[in-house]
Specification:
Layout (H helix, E strand, L loop, with lengths): L7 H25 L4 H27 L6 H18 L4 H27 L4 H21 L1 H4 L14 H20 L1 H11 L1 H6 L4 H27 L9 H14 L4 H17 L7 H15 L12 H24 L1
Length: 335
C-alpha cells in the first residue's frame, strides 16, 4: 500500500493556518485580562529569548561553531532601534518596522565585521575572541555618553513591543531560518558542520557561508534587541554583559543543538521557571540549577535532541496508521 504524503504547498498551508490560529488565540488571551502583569511580562520576554536562541542555534547547532558574543549583537540592535524610534523619522507602523530593520542591519554589519576575522578560528579560540568582541561592544556603548548616555541609560524609548509585534517577529525569524536551512545554502552550512575540510574540497566556499550564517544570526539578535528596548523603555549597557550571552547559549544547549523546536521550548521553560519558583524564593536558584544538571546528565543531547516539530508529519503518521488499521481489519474479516 502506498504511503500517504502531503505535498509541499499543503504542508505550508497547514503550518500557516496553525501559526495564525495560535497567534490569534494568544493575542485574545493577552487582551482579555486573564493574565496578571507579571505573567504578561514573562510571555513577552519569552518571545525575545526565542528569537535569540533560534538565531544563536543557527551558528552553534547548524554551523557547528561556538560564539559567546551574542549579547553584543543584541546590544547593537537595541541601541540602533531605540535611537531610530526616539528620532521619530517615520510615522506610525512604518517607524516600528523601520526601527526593527535598522536594528537588524546594524547588528548584521557588526556580525560581518566581527565574523571575517573571528571565524578563521575554531572551538575555544572562537569562543574567546567573540567573548572579547561582545565585551568591547558593551564597553564602547558605556563610554558613548553623547549618543547612548553611557551608564545613565538611554531613556524615553517608545514602548512599541506588544505581544502581537513580538510574536510576529518570532514567526518571521523561525520561518526565515527554517527556509534558509532547507535550501541549498542550508545544506552547505550543515556540510561545514559535519566536515569542513570535505566541504571545502567539494567546492563550498566555507568562509562565505560562515560569515553569512554569522550575519543572519546577528541580524535576528539585533531585532530581538530592538524589541527588548521597545518593551522596557530604557537601556543600560549592563543589560548586555557576558552572562546574557551565557544564558542564551544555555537555552540552545538545553533545547538541543540543531533543534529549532528545542530552542523554543527551552526558551519558554527557562524564562518562565523563575516566576514559577517564586514561592520558593530562598531555594529557587538551587532548584533551577539542579534541574539543569539533571537534564544534562540524563539527556545530554538536550530536551529535543535534533528533532524538529512538523504538524504535517504528524498528520501523515496518523493517516497512515488509520489506513494500516483498516487494511488489517479487512484482511481479518476476509479470513
Amino acid at each position: 500500500m502506498k504511503r500517504f504524503t502531503l505535498s509541499m504547498p499543503v504542508r505550508y498551508i497547514i503550518n500557516t493556518v496553525l501559526i495564525i490560529t495560535l497567534l490569534l488565540v494568544g493575542n485574545q488571551i493577552m487582551g482579555s485580562g486573564i493574565l496578571g502583569r507579571a505573567q504578561t511580562a514573562i510571555i513577552i520576554q519569552v518571545g525575545f529569548f526565542i528569537i535569540l536562541a533560534v538565531s544563536l542555534n543557527m551558528v552553534t547547532g547548524y554551523l557547528g561553531q561556538l560564539p559567546l558574543g551574542h549579547a553584543g549583537f543584541m546590544a547593537v540592535g537595541a541601541y540602533a532601534g531605540a535611537l531610530f524610534w526616539r528620532a521619530a523619522v517615520l510615522p506610525g507602523m512604518a517607524s516600528v518596522v523601520g526601527g526593527l530593520i535598522v536594528a537588524g542591519v546594524a547588528a548584521a554589519i557588526t556580525g560581518v565585521i566581527i565574523g571575517i576575522p573571528a571565524l578563521r578560528l575554531r572551538g575555544d579560540y572562537l569562543a574567546i575572541i567573540t567573548l572579547g568582541f561582545g565585551e568591547i561592544i558593551r564597553v564602547v556603548l558605556n563610554n558613548l555618553d553623547t549618543i547612548t548616555y553611557g551608564a545613565r541609560g538611554l531613556r524615553n524609548i517608545p514602548r512599541y513591543s506588544s505581544f502581537m509585534l513580538v510574536y510576529i517577529c518570532v514567526i518571521v525569524a523561525c520561518g526565515a531560518i527554517h527556509m534558509i536551512m532547507k535550501s541549498r545554502h542550508g545544506r552547505a552550512i550543515l556540510s561545514i558542520r559535519e566536515n569542513e575540510i570535505a566541504a571545502e574540497s567539494c567546492g563550498i566556499n566555507t568562509t562565505y557561508y560562515k560569515v553569512l550564517t554569522f550575519a543572519v544570526s546577528a541580524f535576528f539578535a539585533g531585532v530581538a534587541g530592538a524589541l527588548f528596548a521597545g518593551n522596557i523603555g530604557i537601556l543600560v549597557p549592563a543589560n548586555f554583559d557576558f552572562m546574557t550571552s551565557i544564558n542564551i547559549l544555555m537555552i540552545v544547549v538545553l533545547g538541543g543543538l540543531g533543534s529549532m523546536m528545542g530552542s523554543v521550548i527551552a526558551a519558554s521553560v527557562l524564562t518562565s521557571l523563575p516566576l514559577v519558583l517564586q514561592p520558593l524564593n530562598e531555594y529557587r536558584m538551587i532548584i533551577f540549577s539542579l534541574m539543569l544538571i539533571v537534564v544534562m546528565i540524563f539527556k545530554p543531547s538536550g530536551l529535543m535532541g535534533n528533532y524538529d516539530f512538523s504538524m504535517s508529519r504528524i498528520i501523515e503518521k496518523v493517516v497512515n496508521r488509520l489506513r494500516t488499521g483498516k487494511t488489517a481489519g479487512k484482511l481479518k474479516s476476509g479470513k
